[in-house]
Design brief:
This protein is of the alpha+beta class. The protein is 67% helix and 7% strand. It is built from 23 helices and 10 strands. The chain has a 10-stranded mixed sheet with strand order 3-6-7-5-8-4-2-9-1-10. Helix 4 packs parallel to helix 20. The longest helix has 44 residues. It starts with a helix and ends in a 7-residue tail after the last helix. This is ABC transporter permease.
């Protein structure tokens, strides 16, 4: 009999509180996914190249785990509190009929245990599947392919997920059960009511809203302009302005709600009642709404920034060559390529590469006047004639230091362009092309400089006039990002040899052959060939170094931000939903009065639906608008100089993800409305007055 009561109550609780149960499942998924990062293929791969950086990232996982435990504890506490508030009358009846308080506590503990077990039975398999999907997608992104993927089940993640989840559930249950057990039967049988709060003059609310808006504007300006990222104190000030500004904004919204109430006296059913309920909920719950809005804002910013970075950070961009070899023992730069070929042949590795070609890079050796070896006054004058902008000023500043540029051999660079699928450069005897690595420019600045180069400006190289032509070139010269040129000139072979006087550095670039791949993934081919090259005396750099740095950046910035976004989103929506349902329950007598006056069930549901739309919609609306500025501020602080040129593209992806999350918010809103409708249906039946 007692066990059947527990099963029935547990089933009813899950059915009536689907929002809370879903939040528990999502929490379990989030726990497992963050704890299992260390076992994913990508992390195992990265540890071979960026072990120090990966180890530091993994050291942060316990901190994220602890922070998540704290956040989810409050989620579970408020949700359980709502469940207990809904069942106050039921608990009072149990005690009145003779149930001991210890047995009531045991019943609640057993019900919660069943719910927790079911949540874990659903959440853990979902978490494992999602973790594998994420691992597969990332493996595909880095070129591992499905063949290179291995299924991983982290028992460490499962154990700590179960331990953390059960610990916070038990703690919340003990606190709430203790409060219930100490209450008198009469208190449990009586219906809770809202305590009236003091109303301030409308002018106070209006001033609070204005001050909050100004503080938010200042906070976002400091973050977007990079002021907040200069030092810890400025970041603290920015966060303080943002938090206090949001609290004041929601506190001041009471004036807006009051204005709508005054102007909304029409023929609509329960219009005044609805908006007075909204006004009262905002008055009583403005702090909760502000906190929920901040959490939703954090979720939208993290999700938008994480997806924006992951979606636009193409790990294979600029991937043309697989290996770069060097030979520092060669007495003559022209002997580097023959020496590398001989060394590869000696170790039976020549069939591993389909292409081997030189990349010659030098300096101006025809003069020792380094400050005046190169001048481009015509280019600078053309830039000064353009409309004033930040990009123009940065270009003028950067090019002002280009008085002793690097030189690149045209034939070598054309071979690189051919392999990358780009058309070759055609340069005359007195012509040159400009090379700037993507690390030192942005898309907008490159376009501005291309506009100037379209006029074939005349410059001087060691006193000799030449003309710049074509567009700015930026294909990576070698595999590793350690060699980046802020400004260089691509010269015809004869001019290159003349100005470099035969003193230049020679890099030998290589492309893997089909035999090297041999049905393996790209990453596997790299790892196998690296092991063979390590047994030789050949100096090399592989694309793994470049890939590892980019991939670590993507993992660190997107995995963590997406994880935090899920946690913040679940907590925010559960808290704001539970807060409304608790407030609705405390004002249940008002609905009962309307029912006695003839209000229909459909009319009450429409009124409650409007209240939910306002109560949940206001935090979401404020967070959605703020997130556009917040994501842009995150890009300012976390993006490297190389990736800042894709901010516009990232913002587009981020805006799409923010819109998607707003749809998810709407689904949450619908779930809360269904819970509200079920509660109102119980009020339609006549009840005894104890």
């Amino acid at each position: 009999m007692f066990s059947n009561l527990i099963l029935r109550n547990s089933r009813r609780s899950r059915k009536e509180n689907g929002l809370f149960f879903s939040s528990l499942v999502i929490s379990i998924v989030a726990f497992y996914m963050i704890l299992s990062i260390s076992t994913q293929d990508v992390m195992l791969f990265l540890q071979k190249m960026e072990s120090d950086a990966v180890d530091k990232l993994l050291l942060l996982i316990p901190a994220f785990y602890g922070m998540t435990l704290g956040i989810l504890f409050f989620l579970i506490y408020f949700a359980c509190k709502y469940q207990f508030e809904c069942r106050r009358h039921e608990f009072g009846v149990y005690l009145m009929l003779g149930m001991r308080r210890s047995k009531l506590f045991g019943m609640l503990l057993a019900e919660d245990f069943l719910t927790s077990i079911l949540a874990m039975l659903i959440g853990l398999p979902v978490a494992v599947v999602l973790s594998e999907i994420v691992s597969l997608v990332t493996a595909k992104l880095v070129g591992m392919g499905i063949i290179g993927h291995q299924f991983s089940l982290s028992w460490f993640a499962i154990e700590w997920t179960l331990a953390g989840f059960l610990a916070i559930k038990l703690t919340a249950l003990l606190i709430l059960s203790g409060r219930i057990s100490r209450q008198e039967i009469g208190t449990l049988l009586s219906q809770p009511t809202n305590r009236p709060k003091k109303q301030m003059p409308s002018v106070i609310y209006g001033l609070a809203a204005i001050c909050g808006s100004v503080m938010l504007a200042v906070a976002y300006y400091m973050a977007i302009q990079g002021i907040a990222w200069t030092k810890v104190s400025m970041m603290g000030l920015t966060l303080l302005l943002g938090i206090v500004g949001t609290m004041l904004l929601f506190y001041g919204m009471r004036a807006l709600i009051a204005l709508i109430v005054k102007k909304g006296k029409g023929n609509k059913q329960l219009h005044v009642f609805t908006f007075r309920q909204i006004q009262e909920n905002v008055i009583h719950q403005s702090n909760s709404m502000a906190i929920s809005s901040l959490l939703i804002l954090a979720a939208l910013c993290c999700f938008g920034a994480g997806v924006g970075i992951a979606g636009t950070n193409n790990l294979s961009s600029g991937h043309v060559i697989d290996y770069t070899f060097e030979d520092h023992t060669a007495e003559d730069s022209s002997q580097v390529l023959p020496n590398i070929k001989a060394a590869l042949k000696e170790n039976s590795l020549e069939n591993q590469f389909s292409e081997l070609f030189e990349m010659r890079v030098g300096r101006i050796r025809t003069t020792e006047d380094y400050d005046n070896a190169y001048s481009m006054d015509a280019v600078m004058d053309s830039l000064r004639s353009l409309p004033q902008s930040e990009d123009r000023d940065v270009l003028l500043n950067n090019l002002g230091y280009a008085t002793y540029p690097y030189l690149i051999c045209l034939s070598d660079y054309n071979r690189l362009l051919e392999l990358s699928g780009n058309p070759a450069l055609q340069l005359g005897e007195k012509e040159a092309a400009v090379y700037i690595d993507t690390e030192f420019t942005t898309v907008s600045r490159t376009a501005m400089l291309n506009q100037v180069l379209a006029g074939h400006p005349k410059v001087e190289l060691d006193g000799s006039p030449i003309h710049l032509t074509g567009e700015v070139q930026s294909v990576n010269l070698v595999t590793d990002r350690s060699i980046t040129l802020s400004f260089a000139l691509i010269l015809p072979d004869e001019a290159f040899l003349y100005y470099s006087q035969g003193m230049y550095d020679t890099y030998v670039n290589a492309v893997l052959s089909e035999q090297a791949l041999n049905g393996n993934s790209l990453m596997t081919a790299y790892l196998d060939l690296n092991e063979k090259l390590d047994e030789t005396d050949i100096e090399y750099e592989s694309y793994l170094q470049n890939m590892g740095r980019q991939l670590f950046y993507t993992i660190a910035s997107s995995y963590i931000t997406l994880y935090l976004a899920i946690v913040f989103l679940v907590v925010a929506n559960t808290i704001v939903g539970v807060q409304f349902l608790m407030s609705q329950q405390k004002t249940g007598r008002r609905y009962q009065t309307l029912i006695r006056l003839g209000a229909t069930y459909e009319t009450l549901c429409q009124s409650a639906g409007k209240q939910i739309t306002w109560f949940m919609g206001l935090p979401v609306l404020v967070a959605a608008v703020s997130s556009l500025f917040g994501v842009r501020a995150l890009f300012t602080g976390i993006l490297s100089s190389r990736t800042r040129g894709t901010v516009a593209e990232m913002m587009f992806v981020s805006a799409a993800m923010i819109l998607l999350l707003c749809v998810i918010e709407y689904i949450y809103m619908r779930v809360v409305k269904r819970s509200s409708d079920r509660y109102l249906l119980t009020l339609m039946q006549p009840q005894r007055e104890e």
